[in-house]
Input
Amino acid sequence: MDQLTLGTRNVSLEFPGVKALSNVDFEITTGEIRAVVGANGAGKSTLMKVLAGANPDYMGEVYLGDKTVDLRTTMAAKKLGIQIVYQEIDTALVPTLSVAENVMLSHMVVETHGHPMLDWNKLRRQAQEVLDRLHISVSVRTLVQNLSLAQKQMVLIAKAVVSKCNFLILDEPTAPLSDTETAELFRLVKHLRETQNIAIVFISHRINEVIQICEKYTVMRNGEIVDTAPITGATTTREIVEKMLGRTFEETFRREHVPIGEAASFQVSHLSGAAGKVNDVSIHVKKGEIVGIAGLVGAGKSELCKTIFGAYAKTGGSISLDGATLKIATPSHAVKNRIAFVPEERRKEGVLVHETVSFNLSAACLKNFCTASFIRKKKVDANAQRYVEDLGISTPSIRQLVKNLSGGNQQKVAVGKWMAADCDVYIFDEPTKGVDVGAKQDIFHLITEITKRGCSVIYASCENTELLSLTDRIYVLYDGKVMAELATAETNEDEIMYYAVGGKAVRA
Amino acid sequence: MQASLYPNLPGLQKRKQTFRFLLDWAAIITLGLCFVIFTVIKGNSFLSVDNMINILRAMSITTVFGIAATVTMAADGFDMSACTLASCAAYVFVSMYLWYGLALWLCVVLSILVTLVMYQLTMFLILVCKVPDMLATCALMFVHQGLGQWYIGGGAVSTGMRLPRTGALPARTTLSDSFSAIGRAPWIIVIMLLCVLAAYVFLEYTKHGRFIYAMGGNRQAAKLSGINIKAYRYMAGMITGVFIAIGGILVASRGSSAQVMCCDNYLMQSLAAVFVGRSVGGAEKPNALGTLVGAMLVSTLENGLTICAVSYYVLPAVKGTVLALALIAAYAGKKEE
Output
């Protein structure tokens, strides 16, 4: 079979304010399975989108064989046989159509020009052939909406290989899959490599999977390729993780010492839920303690927070506060039990963007500002004024709509809302996401202030440096399970990363 | 959620399948039950050939409007103004025939053409100005009503009326037999079945139909598969336009005139037919045969209950209940997001 080479030469890409890729030289040849690894924001997905024609503003050149190609549209990439399966598989399938139609959709658009009538038998037969060839056992007549996540992904891969496909990019394909589903996917990937002239790029955060399936890996960090090396029997998870992290460290936040209570105050035991994404998790938090939840994107951090808060259904386990068992089936129960939650998607879930700063700051405890159901405006404003000053929210007035504030200030409002509510347990999910350094420090101070009141704090983040500087203890999640419980003072970034990519707890 | 609680219970799986099956065929099962119950109660006065034709005739206009809505909704569109536009089509049809004495076939063609021209405005608002379908057509509903009534001068178009504004005598004073035949059995039933068949073949057996479903099911995925989604939304709109005009013509012919706002009341029942038909046979999307079943269900109920001497003013409550039940069948089984 002909060997085809796809590569980039000096490719750079800038997003407003960020250099997402700088001078990247990447090359892949048909017949290999290549892993691309890196921490969050290293530029893996950005690079793959360039190859798929979805980032039209790149500088530098992309070549196929000895010819330079212009990949400015997704169609251009597809015509060259570059297919990508994105992580968000639901955006690429039509749920109300059958498997056969979904597999053949692009094919129908391109290949059946001039034949308006559809030959259902032929269509189903062709789709069946593709599925058979890949040994995927799904009925072609089933509607896609009735498939499991893994099956949908298989259908997407089938759809990719129906059309001309020399380079198949799988962007974090295993993130939502269970172990058996992952094994099935790996079988498919290996099968494809053996039977077709195809190169597979495999993006994953799970290093042990990468070692298991790939022959070569490329490490990216801060928009650059750090290393490309073959995977041999001697390659270890640790070695790859070290390359991913490099030797750079962010400036750290010095937190004040806050006395921590003796006994566990807030206890979560054997919690499962969120449709299988939280699996038998047991954690506890003492009064005045900040407990970190570490883990990569998709490890189940948000799911854990939301399950505790009652936003996702629980299937097992219990939650107790100061020895009393809490029944939390909905967020409303959680709030009544004085638990506060600052969600990750703040614009969508954390603040009311079309309302004023003043209203937002009283929204979680409006009852306190009312007399017989009538809102006492003066009290609301006094409360708002106090927190705007306390938290240093920079806003021209408390009447300003929250949507006009910067990201960091919105986040402060989201936190301030719960400060006013005076809760016992605070859960933060990625509170520093998209927040600049200055605001980050403010938010850290805020959280420390909260613990001074004797509250318990759960802090979920995928920024390990933050966890190390802010928390007292860290639980590392992987696949919805707790892999390790680490004392912050005795651990380091490497160790967290080791567990976060699925390393087993064997090290001392 | 239940599946994860009891993952390996075959009995539960089986029960779920049976439940799903019942939901999928709920409309047909209800239809069958209606027939059995009305036959048991009223015997041959319900189950006679004449009465069956009654039912078919009564459902035909709703079905045609339902087919129009089916095509739009297959593309994930929505048209609140379909039936007000149909009234305009009816005005044009009858006025061309009576006022200007044109040949019947020419009146039909002109009526369809005018409808399509007016539908450009709908498409302009939706595709070019990007107004959401519901809002755009809500506004156009009033435009259609006003324009249509301006054209007919505020009064019905029927035999023996002078032309508005000029006051001239109409070219024809009577309606011909072929004009009236369109609105009577068997022709009205034949036309309805042809419309259903045409929409069925188009949506199920042409790739254009499947592309319309694809964009209706997931616009983003359809776009990434290389489908020109604007072109297909436009195509769906134009086909809808044709069915709207046909519906208007049937109403006019059946009523032997174009009364003011003669079609406006068909909107809700035609939408009801589409919603009832959505889940028939597990299709999970608006489809021509399902719409036929939906319209038949509503019509059979009306007919049967009337024969059973239920007051006409109570009938809407019954229709509403059936619609609610059908919608429960379609949505209650859904997984929570």
In short: The CA atoms of residues 20 and 46 of chain A lie 7 Å apart. The mean pLDDT of chain A is 83. The longest strand of chain A covers residues 18-29.
